[in-house]
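CORE FACILITY INTAKE
Project code: CF-77B
Contact: R.S. (postdoc)
Sample description: multi-component assembly, three entities in total
Requested service: structural model of the whole complex
Turnaround: standard
Below are the sequence entries exactly as provided by the requester. Do not edit them.
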Amino acid sequence: MEKQSGYTWKLGMFVTIGLLLFIMAVYFIGKQQNLFGSTFHITSQFKTVSGLEVGNNVRFSGINVGTVEQIQLKNDSTVVVVLVMKEEVRKFIKTDATASIGSDGLMGDKVLTISPGAKSKKVIEDNGQIASVDGIEMQDLMKSVKKSVDNVGIISEELAIFSHSMNNGNGALARLVKDDKMANSVSNTLSNLETGTKGFSENMEAAKSNFLFRGYFKKKEKEKKEKAEERKEKQEEAKKEKQEARQEKQEEQEKAAKEKEQKEKEEQQKQEDAKK
Amino acid sequence: MILNIKNTFAEIGETTIFAKRFFKEVLIPPYETKEFLRQCYVIGYRSLPLVAITGFIMGLVLTLQSRPTLVKFGAESWLPGMVALSLIREIAPVITALICAGKISSGIGAELGSMKVTEQIDAMEVSAVNPYNYLVVTRVLACTLMVPILVFFADAIGIIGGYVGINIHGDVNFYRFLTQIVQSLEYLDLLPATLKTFFFGFFIGIIGCYKGFNASNGTESVGQAANSAVVTASLSIFIIDMVAVQITDLFF
Amino acid sequence: MKEKLHKEPKTKEKDQTPIIEIKDLHKTFGKDNAVLKGVNLTLNKGEDLVVLGRSGSGKSVTIKCIVGLIEPDKGEIKVFDQNVLNISKSELNEIRVRIGFLFQSGALYDSMSVRENLAFTLTKHKRDLSPEEVENEVMEALENVGLADAVDKMPSELSGGMRKRIGLARTLILKPEIILYDEPTTGLDTITSREISELILDIKHKQKTSSIIITHDMACAKMTADRIVVLKEGVIHAEGTYEELEKDEDEWVRSFFE
């Protein structure tokens, strides 16, 4: 009997601590899953849930505040999602909050995000419904991509026509690019213009010294200085934009060139076909 | 060769009959409560230091080994969750079960084997005490109930080991560490893992008892019983684990 | 005192009621290792029957069949007029309680102290005993074998002779009517053997038991035997008192007595 009590307390301690560890694990995991403690429910209707699953996290302002409890098809284009959330965040969620579905992390787990609304001050009720914002679907994304690709096609076609007429046409622009005479006459015209303006500026200098006009010109100079500073900033921005624009142009030109080549080839083939 | 296979099947069959007897006799009085508690003490409490040391080392080593890979993927913050998950789902149950197979199964095999050889089991039988009830039922039951508790200890101590491992390279607050672990766990991680430890315990007990109970006469067979108990128990642990993981995978 | 006991005439106590009857007992181990080939044996009430025979002649198998440790292939065993071969487990256990069995090695439970060894069997059968009563019974049984001071020792601390005496005490604690001794003196020195033999006689007189003693120790047989049977190759080869067999015409039987 004495011997028995020597080990029973150790055994009891061993078993108690072991079971306590288990119960603690169950409790904490349960707390994590909102199965214990006070919670409330929210529903929201989506057209599509894009792979959202029961048990996914619900976030509000980036904080995990609940989990997806249930996902049900209501009809062919409506899915009802039931969320279970911590009671303590209810006071922050107003009736005009919106729910949206996004992805999270490397593995692409879906997350339901609740975004606060702007106007309403009424706290949402238990089992209340909030509006949903359909997330960007891959399909939609592909649609818009297709549209812009189509546009690029049209643009490049027109560009091809433009450059073709530049090379072969007889218009003013084409002649400017191709004809040496034309180019010379333009440069002559420009140099004439230059000398003309020089003379004009000398006249103006003379006019400035005239006392009658002095006040007017001083005012102008002040405005100039202020404008120059503004201009500098603008110029820098403009430069950047230009660079980007140039790159795009280059790409488009390249595309156009390629398409042109293709067209030429096609034409050649047609001609050959015709010959045959 | 064919004879070997036949013998293996015969042994499996005999073990099954032996185990069947357990379920029959576990319900029939007399209940050997005192012996059961004593076995719980020997199997559970006495194995704790061994399980604690291995659990700690497993947690530590697992953390240190997984760290470089996770760092490569920039997912270092997943380390606590991953270590806890692999500990609880797989490593702690299996390692603890293997340790118990080595310590408990061989111990039971040797003890019952020597009792068989020195006619102590016959003596019990002759004095109209059911040796199966007194020796086997108590031990198997104690194993079945104590191994899961040992696994809980291994889980907890392994997680502490993981914490130490993480703090070798970085500095993580213990509370933050625990939060990260709890966040990455679900019931589905805990429950199947716990359930299978009961099976581990049962098989460790029943195989040890079977080998000991069926030792032939002669002191040499005591060593054989202990040895083959460890081998068979370890093997069966891996098989049960495989089956358990597949079933878990199938249903969840 | 012990001297006086064993000088008492043996014939007086004989009453011819058989309590164990074995008829045509067969047992084969494996495929062709026939150990018993039709043994016929009777134990009368209050009789000490010594079974002689060489190693492997089937002596141990015979008495293990009586208590149901080994199931014979063929034959009939009647104990207290009940056929032990076709009764239920619980009925068999009732009979087992009335039969004591002393194993060759004593078969003490290694994990228990001497006190626990004795109390174990007792408490398994008489569950309503108070701890004081159990203690009293244990001490009484130990005093019967003269080892009351070894009560707190573990079996590993005991000598071979002490183990056998404790084993005997454990058998006696249930107050059996029949005691089966499996080679009680094997492996002991002459003096200890003599002590054990005296103990067997002592018990017989004190507790009025009948016993079957398996041995090939002639000193022990001479002291304890009321009647001797000799087993040879699985059958009873000769039967009689010690004095009769000593002068037997069969040379093989006489070889035991030399």
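Facility notes:
- Residues 1-14 of chain C have pLDDT under 50 and may be disordered.
- The first strand of chain C starts at residue 18 and ends at 29.
Invoice: internal transfer
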